Amino acid sequence: MASAPVAAHELWIEPNGYQVEPGGQLQARIINGEDFDGTNLPFLPQRFRHFIVYADGRGVQVPGRPGDTPALNMSAQGEGLHVVGYQSTVATLTYDNWPKFQKFVDHKDFGDVRSLHDARGLPEGGFKEAYTRFSKSLIGVGDAAGADARIGLETELVALTNPYTDDLSGGMRVQLFYGQSVRANEQIEVFAKAPDGRVTVSYVRTNGDGIATIPVRSGTAYQLDAVVLREPTATVAEQTSAVWETLWANLTFQAP
Fold first, then answer.
1. Is the entire prediction scored with pTM above 0.85?
2. Are strands 58-61 and 127-141 parallel, antiparallel or unpaired?
C-alpha cells in the first residue's frame, strides 16, 4: 500500500455471524477499507504477528493455510464470549505532500502535528509513515457469557459491556489503552452498519479514565477505531525509514 489515501482506511474483523450456536463454527473476514466496505484479506501468516481466539481465559492460535478465506474459520471453543485478536506486521506508505498528511491528521484529531514535524526538520513531502493494526472482535457462542479483557495489544479497545448478555439501553462502554496507560480525552470513530446495510459514522471521546459510551441500536453492527500517532521506535525507523508511526486499535461487535 503506497498511496496516502489508504492512511485513513481501517482494518477490521467482520464475523459472518456475531452470535453462534454451541458447537458452531467461528467464521470472520479480515477487511481493509472504510465505512464497513473494503478488500477481503485471506489468511496470510506473513502479514500478521498474532491471530488468536480467546475464550474462557484461554488463547488458541487461529489455524489456517495461506490463502484461506475467510481468514478465520475454526470451531468454537465451547460456549461463552469469544474474543478474536489480530496484530498485523508493520507496513508503510509514503506521503507525496503535506496536505495529504494534514487531511489524515485532521480526520484522526491528532492536533498540531505540523509544528512537531517542522521542529524535527522533516520534509513537506516524500516522507513515510509506518503503521500497525491491532484489531479485535467479539463473538457470542451459545449463552455468550463472559467478559472482554486486555489481550496484550500495544493499543487496545476493551469492551466493558458484553453486548450479547448485558443491558444495552445505557449504551456500550469501552476503555481505550496505549501500553499500560488509558488514553484519556481521545477520539474514537464509530461506524454503525444497520441491518439494511446503511452505514453511519459518528465520534465519541474517552473520559479521564479512557472510557467512552457508544449508543447502540438493535441488529446493528459496530466498528470502533482509535489511532495513536507517535515518532517511530528506533527499530521501526531503522527498518522502514519512516518518520511517523501509527498504531490502530479496532473493535467490532453487534447489538442483538
1. yes
2. unpaired
* Inter-residue contact 60 to 52 (CB < 8 Å): yes
Convert the chain into a string of H (helix), E (strand) and C (coil).
CCCHHHHHCEEEEEECCCEECCCCEEEEEEEEEECCEEEEECCCHHHEEEEEEEECCEEEECCCCCCCCCCEEEECCCCEEEEEEEEECCEEEEECCHHHHHHHHHHCCCCCHHHHHHHCCCCCCCEEEEEEEEEEEEEEECCCCCCCCCCCCCEEEEECCCCCCCCCCCCEEEEEEECCEECCCCEEEEEEECCCCCEEEEEEECCCCCEEEECCCCCCEEEEEEEEEECCCHHHHHHHCCCEEEEEEEEEEECC
Domain spans of the chain, in order of start: 4-254
Contact 31, 12 (CB under 8 A): yes
CB 91 within 8 A of CB 130: yes
Beta-sheet pairing, 155-159 with 172-178: antiparallel
Placement of cell 473493535 in the chain: 251
The segments of the chain whose pLDDT lies below 50 read 1-8
Distance CA 32, CA 78 (A): 29
| pLDDT of 238 | 97
Pairwise CA distance, residues 50 & 108, whole Å: 25
Q: What is the pLDDT of residue 250?
A: 98
Quote the CA–CA distance of 79 and 73 in Å, as a whole number: 17
